[in-house]
Design a protein that fits this description.
heterodimer, A: alpha+beta, FAD/NAD(P)-binding domain, six-stranded mixed beta sheet, B: alpha/beta, 7 helices, 8 strands, globular, binds flavin-adenine dinucleotide
Chain lengths: 405, 243
């Protein structure tokens, strides 16, 4: 079968999209400007991502299960705290083993995805290649690469991340704002075991998250950290020595895990939010961070992208089984309707959460605690938050239920 | 059937559709409704292909090795999917402009489809394993001759899929007075008096020697858009076989 789509971007989402289609027998081109060998290292991407159980069900359904088993750390409880005060929220999985999410190191995910993509005869990789032109006239989407070659397929899937050039070329201006925050990301060793608990601690300066990781090879307890602080304060923190930074983390974590020391280099990212209601155009669809970027407070960015992949795969495979052109406007409209509400709700909820917790002062804190108490008592709401964390709310694409399309 | 037999296409109507040809493939153009209808029809067609020819629903080309005829093909909205599903497709339309638009588009899509500007009554090809005829029978001058011509193009054991609007106050209000006035369907597309009820349509096909094995409504809901339904007030689609 000829390639049904050109996927721009071989990041976590672009590669997953290619593999999800390949698992259904659909061939694609993938264009990535960097060298994925280099991307699949801790030095390129030292982050750890919480993968929801529905995202995991999809990765398993497309055949990645065996490569990932044993490499992630299950989150069994999420403790949400306000300034370390009592009266926080606990989210717990109903049965042990039924994780709320699993922490995977990004470089391992990238390695798994890249190796599987290389091994697939339905994926043609174009690596270290930049795009010099995109054309959407007539019956195909065409992409011209730096080496002069031209790819053509009925559909272009832009998985180019936040700064998507395709999105810009289309003149899609997303609703966007920059938070006055930067996220500092790293991994730490700590004295006490984490017991598979994730901590989300809200400070008026920004949220601090401790996310459980598997013990290191030499048996030391580890967690990932995502700490957002006001943007002008980030450079100060980044300049601290490892020991100085670890001391700050001791304070921020309230000693929950005992003494902390650094297990990885630190990196910092300016935080922004963008959301486009329109994620399609003639023979084009935007997925992953190209279509939406959210605050990492709830660790949902990647999961939202995986949900894009599941929905788009189902829409395309469904349509192609009816003999439809994968770039057919009706299919893209169905995808846009399906994903629109979900991405906006998650984006707004996350943004609202961040704003709610970002307001300093006693009254605000009282409101927050009242809010948390309310959520803790209101079963249905709690269910919603849990489902959001797991990624099981809304009309679920089949892949997210672990069912092949 | 020979070329001498009377063509049942009404010339005024054929000219009207011809004007629309260039606009056919624009999903936001005057055929927007047809583009929206297409996946709904295709879902029904695929279901019956799988049932009738015992195909797996996951097969990409269930019509591989089979022939198909699309009658009243317009610019190929249905003929192209049938070709992608593996059929050797012949597609006919009375308006040469439609056929010209269809040929140009198929070339762009890289599909080999045998397009002919000809009425079914004079077509010298077939018989076919699958015959499709979407929203045509309500436009012809003598539906009984037309039904006989369709049946004549169907191979023994072949499958016919036909859709057409029902003759109800609802379809009159919505299709003729509503959608045409609002510009969702070009004015002059429909002549309500020529619409057939499902019973009338089935009788025509039975007289032509076919057996209707299934029928479903195509309804519109604000939440779901156009969809297959038990409600046949507006429009219906049916499957018939030649045994
Ligand atoms: C601090 C931080 C922490 C986070 N933590 C979590 C978490 O715990 N859980 C979670 O779910 N999410 C998290 N996220 C979000 C998550 O990282 C992103 O949502 C996810 O990586 C998006 O993947 P993507 O493939 O869409 O985009 P990207 O990862 O940005 O990939 C895009 C790729 O496209 C390539 N590219 C771009 N343009 C072109 C072009 N024109 N030609 C060729 N190649 C091109 C780029 O080189 C890149 O490799 C976090 C984000 C941040 C900033």
């Amino acid at each position: 079968m000829a390639e049904a789509a050109i996927i721009l971007g071989g990041g976590l989402i672009g590669l997953t999209q290619a593999l999800a289609l390949a698992a259904q027998g659909v061939a694609t081109h993938v264009v990535e400007r960097f060298d994925p060998e280099a991307m699949a290292t801790r030095g390129f991407d030292g982050r750890t991502s919480a993968i929801s159980s529905s995202s995991m069900a999809m990765l398993e359904a497309i055949g990645l299960g065996p490569h990932l088993t044993g490499t992630g750390c299950a989150i069994e409880t999420i403790k949400v705290l306000d300034h370390l005060r009592p009266g926080g929220l606990d989210f717990q999985s109903e049965r042990p083993g039924d994780a709320l999410g699993t922490m995977y190191e990004n470089h391992l995910l990238r390695r798994t995805l890249f190796d599987s993509a290389k091994a697939s005869d339905r994926i043609t990789l174009h690596l270290g290649q930049d795009v010099v032109a995109r054309r959407f006239d007539g019956g195909t989407a065409q992409v011209e690469l730096a080496d002069g070659s031209v790819l053509a397929a009925p559909l272009l899937i832009a998985a180019e991340g936040r700064g998507s050039e395709t999105r810009e070329q289309l003149g899609i201006t997303p609703a966007r704002w920059q938070y006055d925050h930067s996220a500092m990301v790293s991994a730490v060793y700590h004295e006490k075991p984490h017991d598979n608990v994730a901590y989300e601690i809200f400070y008026s300066t920004g949220p601090f998250a401790l996310l459980p990781m598997l013990d290191s090879d030499d048996g030391r307890h580890r967690s990932a950290i995502v700490w957002s602080v006001p943007r002008d304060q980030a450079p100060g923190y980044m300049k601290l020595s490892d020991r100085g930074f670890a001391a700050e983390l001791d304070k921020a974590s309230g000693g929950a895990l005992g003494t902390i020391s650094m297990a990885a280099p630190r990196s910092s990212y300016p935080l922004g939010f963008h959301h486009s209601a329109r994620v399609t155009d003639q023979r084009i669809v935007l997925i992953g961070d190209a279509g939406h970027g959210i605050h990492p407070i709830a660790g949902q960015g990647l999961n939202l992208g995986f949900r894009d992949v599941a929905a788009l795969t189902e829409v395309l495979v469904d349509g192609m089984r009816l003999g439809m052109d994968p770039g057919d406007a009706q299919l893209l409209a169905r995808y846009e309707r399906w994903r629109g509400l979900d991405t906006l709700m998650v984006a707004m909820a996350t943004d609202g959460l961040n704003r709610l917790f970002g307001i300093p002062g006693k009254p605000a804190s009282a409101v927050r605690r009242f809010g948390m108490g309310l959520v803790a008592r209101a079963k249905p709401l709690q269910g919603f938050f849990m489902d959001e964390a797991r990624g099981t709310s809304g009309a679920m694409p089949k892949l997210l239920q672990g069912i092949p399309v | 059937m020979s070329k001498a037999s009377i063509a049942t296409i009404n010339p005024a109507e054929a000219a009207h559709f011809g004007k629309m040809a260039a606009d056919w493939w624009d999903p936001k153009g005057s055929s927007a409704m047809l583009h929206k209808l297409n996946p709904v029809r295709l879902r029904y067609i695929r279901r019956h292909i799988d049932r009738h020819f015992a195909c797996d629903k996951c097969e990409w080309t269930p019509l591989e090795g089979r022939t198909a005829l699309d009658v009243g093909c317009g610019a190929g909205l249905l003929a192209e999917p049938l070709a992608r599903l593996g059929a050797a497709v012949t597609a006919i339309d009375a308006a040469p402009e439609n056929i010209a638009a269809a040929q140009a588009h198929a070339a762009q899509s890289g599909l080999a489809i045998d397009y002919r500007a000809e009425p079914v009554e004079t077509l010298e090809a077939g018989p076919f394993d699958l015959v499709t005829c979407m929203e045509v029978i309500e436009h012809v001058d003598s539906p009984d001759h037309f039904a006989a011509a369709l049946a004549g193009k169907l191979a023994d054991g072949g499958l016919l899929i036909l859709s057409t609007p029902n003759r109800t106050p609802a379809s009159r209000a919505l299709l003729v007075e509503g959608a045409e006035r609002l510009g969702q369907i070009p004015r002059g597309t429909h002549d309500w008096d020529k619409f057939l009820t499902p019973e009338e349509c089935e009788a025509l096909l039975t007289d032509a020697g076919l057996t209707v094995i299934d029928s479903e409504g195509i309804a519109f809901g604000p939440g779901q858009g156009l969809h297959l339904s038990d409600n046949k007030m507006l429009n219906y689609i049916l499957a018939a076989v030649k045994t």
